[in-house]
Predict the 3D structure of the following.
Amino acid sequence: MHYEDIFEQIEVITLFKEGNIKPLRFKWNGRVYKINRINGQWTSPQGYNKQIHFSLIADSSDYFEILLDTSNYEWQVARVCLEG
């Protein structure tokens, strides 16, 4: 497996329900990835704001870490672990 830090802005389709955030799909490098499973979620402080991180597996079987920055409500792909 090969891990790589990315930190690039992405577009994410997200479900906001009952105070929870659930990313469903994201677009990165011109490709749309369907999120098959969220493995974990955690928050890291960023001054007065925070970043909400999600560890997930996409339909490509690759592992991703994406994050939502609450200072500007932009999503990023933070890290990727490519299987293939």
User: Anything to note?
Assistant: The mean pLDDT is 93.
